[in-house]
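Sequence in, structure out.
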Amino acid sequence: MKAAVLYEPKTPLVIEDVELDDPKEGEVLVKIGAAGICRSDRHFMHGDAPIALPVVLGHEGAGTVEAVGPGVTSVRPGQQVILSFVTACGRCNSCLSGNSQVCDMHMATGPNMLDGTQRLHKGDTRIHHMGKVACFAEYAVIPEMGCVPIDMPTPMAQAALIGCCVPTGVGAVVNSARVTPGSSVAVVGCGGVGINVIMGSALANATTIIAVDLRESQLEFAMKFGATHTVNASDGDPVARVKELTGGRGADFTFEVVGASQTIKNAYDMTGKSGVCTLVGIAPFGAEAPLNAVDMVRMEKTVRGTYYGSTHARVDMPKFADLYHAGKLNLDELVVRRYTLDQINEAYDDMDKGEIGRGVIVF
């Protein structure tokens, strides 16, 4: 099959034929329908985060079950599935305590299957699986718990977004921060995930939703998805502007969706008394951010991280799909660009240029 393989950081993905082994016990073969162009994969491509190489990236995807391995009971051939890049083993301490999004076994096995091996290879060269998904390919073998079935047929491009940017963004609002009706929200970084934070805040009935970004085109785009105000961080002090828009108090809830030291500090400084600052963006490996510890205590601020929007994939993803079909999540307008797998390097170049909306590889 054809796949996009990363051999070395700071080099283009190589589109080539690779071999994919049959699914083993508890695994599923999926024909990929669509895969989102997400910045998390770019971190590995740029060398900002380590990963075993060579690797097939791609973690935001959807497809159709082609075949199942022994013991698989929750999905069947022909069924549409959304792919979860956090496979929950259901047995570790994190899973049993209700935090399957940080499954211990998933993290311990990294870009391998749950048994520590790979299904991808080219001759004798084994190839790793980003998030046990590796959906920058025509097919993927995925653990059963990483395949989330959905009942209502959903366009593949939109279904793919429910594999990452929707749960990461909307989940950060409803599962992690738990935004309350009538509250004020500031969202720092309005890419695909940030737009979903905005949509999640609108779902939670926040009344003031401030989009903060460096790009005017991105801010205009954010207004389509529920932002009530915009702040261009390249034109003045974004912290002062957010405080001005919230009567001098600062926002009740802030979200950092960039993954940079300065934007983390800005999001924290925008947070008002007794407010909650939620860190969503993945920063470069080893990055740190300066926060005012006295201010945190005296103003009773809360700073928390959220991974995958604290989403329980098999419970939450079907709900997100239902919200899309009910017209509550505007994923149709979020998908702006479509590419073939052969165009994947062009797709990431477009992301680096700051193109608005989400790009998707469609098979």
